[in-house]
What does this fold into?
Amino acid sequence: MNKIGETINKKRTELGLTQSQLAGILNVSFQSVSKWENGSTYPDIEKLPELAAALKTTVDALLGYKGAAADYDNRYAAKDYYWGLRPNRLCFEIMQLLPPVKPYHVLDIGCGEGKDAVFLAKCGYIVTAFDISETGIEKAKRLAEHNCVHVDFRKVDVMDFTFDRDYDIIFSSGVLHFIRPAYREELCARLKTHTTPNGFNVLNVFVQKPFIVRASDGIRDESLRSPWRSGELFGYYHDWLFHVCREDIFDCMSGGTPHKHCMDSLIAEKLGAGEVL
Ligand SMILES: C[S@@+](CC[C@H](N)C(=O)[O-])C[C@H]1O[C@@H](n2cnc3c(N)ncnc32)[C@H](O)[C@@H]1O
It folds into this structure.
């Protein structure tokens, strides 16, 4: 098997599709799918977008492109914590709304070196957290160990993450600008589906403002990052109850050069059965 064959086989199996079913969706023979998976042939380039859509993934992921992971692996290789250890303000805000008086389940998407995931676990939440960077995840595991808490850390791309349960809190800070604009609405819909009734989504995203100069932020492949439209995130949650909905402009020193960012932050609650806005 080669990398793309392995990925096709893994995704197809996760989705519970047979080779014939996948072949039917793509209008190819099941022998073609079998050959792709065992590495004896490759899918046509023109088929890749359709194949990625059928497997609920991206062409980049099919091709094994590491994307942002390579950059973050480098940053996280240093001994110090690149983003520091102070928990994000949103952690304190969600704790006020849903204090850990019960074993609530939290998912931290793009957890980096784990500062927020470990903090939330220390506070008593049951935390699952993942990131695309292997180095970040290893460092996050050490941070949890050092703080004597358990966090279920996983190395996975958000576009490939399979929900094995619903969560009371889905949290993500500073990550979703790595998701291509075309996938954002669908991703938010997935997060909403996998949130328990009266559970929360706690998200922030970088947004573009015409008066803020775009900073490089040290990412080598600029095409990976694309800020959201101002208010776009709030729009995807129009049917949830907003507890926090704000746009901030702040100074940042990441990458070593002073620059500014604009960020939309949202804490929204999923309504329970029979509840209306
Ligand atoms: C700005 S850092 C934020 C890290 C962490 N949330 C924090 O606030 O400390 C962005 C993180 O998103 C991760 N990331 C980027 N693309 C991702 C993807 N497709 N799936 C999962 N994580 C991703 C990066 O590896 C990086 O750790």
DSSP finds eleven helices and seven strands in the chain. The mean pLDDT is 92. Residues 68-69, 72, 83, 88, 110-112, 115, 131-133, 136, 157-159, 173-175, 178 surround S-adenosylmethionine (CB under 6 Å).
